[in-house]
Write a structure and sequence with these properties.
By secondary structure, this protein is mostly helical. It is built from 7 helices and no strands. The relative contact order is 0.14.
Length: 168
């Protein structure tokens, strides 16, 4: 059979074990939905110190974080559209549903920032920004968050270097 036939067979085996699985003929729509979601949620959490909680979907007042999250995701959706990708799930809806579940998920990029470890910003937000540049799609919000996280990482090196200099 075709490669997709094998993927469907594998999904069936996984489901027969009691786990959820779904076969996709093209993974790009699901990958892009997840990329946009992760680029936004990880970067915002890393910069605010907030876990992925209801703040990320709140848009009642002008100062609510949900406005920024929505704008970031809209930029990501514009990049996907320019790449010819019809998204599997709407990232904003994924965000709203996740915050309503009340899990207050702690994104990996927030964990990395708190531990002063290098983040995955290049692989997540950076990938989205680079694809936007390639396609000529303006993404000023995503670009700003990408640069801010890179600067935050650079600040750790600077602080480490300064403290070493004072000791010597």
């Amino acid at each position: 059979g075709t490669p997709y036939d094998r993927v469907e067979e594998l999904a069936g085996l996984i489901e027969s074990s009691g786990l959820k699985a779904k076969a996709f003929p093209d993974l790009r729509p699901a990958q892009w939905s997840k990329l946009i979601f992760n680029a936004t949620v990880n970067a915002v959490a890393a910069l605010t110190g907030l876990p992925h909680d209801p703040h990320f979907a709140e848009e009642a007042d002008a100062g609510d974080l949900g406005h920024l999250v929505h704008g970031l995701m809209d930029e990501g959706k514009a990049v996907a559209a320019a790449a010819g990708i019809e998204l599997h799930e709407d990232p904003w809806e994924m965000n709203v549903l996740a915050t309503r579940r009340g899990s207050a998920h702690y994104p990996s990029m927030l964990e990395d920032v708190e531990a002063r470890r290098p983040t995955e910003v290049e692989l997540i937000t950076g990938a989205l920004v680079r694809e936007a540049l390639r396609l000529g799609v303006p993404v000023p919000l995503n670009t700003a968050l990408y640069r801010l996280i890179k600067a935050k990482e650079a600040s750790w090196e600077l602080k480490t270097g300064q403290s070493k200099g004072r000791q010597g």
